[in-house]
Design a protein that fits this description.
The protein has 392 residues and is α/β, with parallel strands linked by helices. It is 42% helix and 15% strand. The chain has helices at 6-12, 38-46, 61-74, 85-94, 111-123, 136-142, 165-173, 187-190, 206-210, 224-238, 244-275, 295-301, 316-326, 356-362, 378-391; strands at residues 78-82, 102-106, 127-131, 147-153, 178-182, 200-204, 218-222, 281-285, 308-313, 331-332, 342-344, 368-372. The strands form two sheets. It has a seven-stranded mixed beta sheet, with helices on both faces. α4 (85-94) packs parallel to α5 (111-123).
Length: 392
């Protein structure tokens, strides 16, 4: 069988067994590798063949298994695993861009992503133009003949704005620019960004891939030529590669990601339906509801609403804090995509470095709560949210 389906690849894809034929993938916890002779060492430094390794910063058997499985899941040719999601974002952009290059970016970005684009890239001479990611006309007006790349979150954090990957890709490719997509909120289970026109796809695998609050990780996916020719030289020399142990944890997470993400989405939809129009809310944001501004796009691009929703409480920060403190199942944290439900107040945590004006422009009010739905029973989650709204 050469054309296996997603859930089969998530369990078996990329597996490399040692001479002992272990069932669970092995952790090769080593920094380096021994050569049979000096000639072999010389040859390997000139060119590494399949299943040949030099140093853990360059590659590792466990990490290679994870990279191959992620590439199979996303429909990419290759991938490079990174120490964290932000190492992946930084590596994907910095390896591609040089002083004097121009990039167009959606302005609705996670705080650390915004820091990379707004502070790091410009510090080294990259020119940045920010646009409203949902407005294709702004993308068309912003790209130039010298635009090297465009960058956006396919679903923005935390206001869940869905960006038209195919539409932006068409605009970018018309001037020869690469399309770099942070695909975390869309998840690799629902989104096939490569098929939709993305050239480079980035995930924080800390989120849904691990999905159980254990390890940091990230991955950059794309063509073999781009990953090995552009990304790998930058990442292996700057030290942002993934540890073998974390890669092993991520491999175990991939075995169940499809089951977890679909259960999380079921819970998110149940909460959204139960709370839409609630008297304590100014608005409920969930791409799986027809009331969402990009509902039709979300259905075409993802086929589902995803695992995240946001609730804007009347009464601002005080009401939001009462809501968070009253939750009995969901925990307060700043991670997402976990098996446990997590609630976050973006204005005072993940997006606190933004000015009041910037947060207002992005729709991040003091009453906004981001809800990452876990795999708990949807009925229990709905009951917990409703009682917390009463307390707010």
């Amino acid at each position: 069988m050469t054309d296996k389906r997603t859930r089969t690849n998530l369990v078996h894809g990329g597996t490399k067994r040692s001479q002992w034929n272990e069932v669970s993938e092995a952790i090769f916890l080593t920094q380096g590798f021994v050569y049979e002779n000096a000639e072999q060492a010389e040859a390997r430094f000139l060119e590494t063949g399949p299943d040949e390794f030099i140093y853990a910063r360059y590659g590792n058997p466990t990490v290679a298994m994870f990279e191959e499985r992620m590439a199979l899941l996303e429909g990419a040719e290759d991938g490079f695993a990174c120490a964290s999601g932000m190492a992946a974002v930084n590596g994907a952009l910095t390896s591609l861009l040089r002083a004097g290059d121009h990039i167009v970016s959606a302005k609705a970005l996670f705080g650390s992503c915004l820091y990379i684009v707004e502070e790091v890239l410009t510090r080294y001479g990259v020119e940045v133009t920010f646009v409203d990611g949902a407005n294709l006309e702004e993308w068309r007006a912003a790209v130039r003949p010298d635009t090297k790349a465009v960058f956006f979150e396919s679903m923005s954090n935390p206001t869940l704005e869905v960006i038209d990957i195919a539409g932006v890709a068409e605009v970018a490719h018309s001037v020869g620019a690469k399309v770099v997509v942070d695909n975390v909120f869309s998840t690799p289970v629902y989104s096939k960004a490569i098929e939709q026109g993305a050239d480079v796809v980035v995930y924080s695998t800390t989120k849904h891939v691990d999905g159980q609050g254990r390890c940091l990780g990230g991955v950059i996916l794309g063509t073999k030529e781009h990953i090995r020719g552009v990304v790998e030289p930058y990442m292996k020399h700057t030290g942002g590669s993934l540890s073998p142990f974390n890669a092993w944890v991520m491999l175990k997470g991939l075995e169940t990601i499809a089951l977890r993400v679909r259960a999380q989405t079921e819970g998110a939809l149940a909460i959204a339906k139960a709370t839409e129009g609630h008297e304590k809310l100014n608005r409920l944001i969930y791409p799986g509801l027809p009331s969402h501004a990009q509902y039709d796009l979300a259905q075409r691009q993802l086929g589902a609403g995803g695992t995240m929703l946001s609730l804007e409480l009347k009464g601002g920060k005080e009401a939001a804090f009462r809501f968070l403190n009253a939750m009995q199942i969901a925990v307060i944290s700043n991670n997402l995509g976990d098996a446990k439900s997590i609630v976050t107040h973006p204005a005072t945590t993940t997006h606190q470095r933004l000015s009041v004006e910037q947060r207002a422009e992005l729709g991040i009010s003091d009453g906004l709560v981001r809800f990452s739905v876990g795999i708990e029973d949807p009925a229990d989650l709905v009951a917990d949210v409703l009682q917390a709204l009463d307390a707010a």
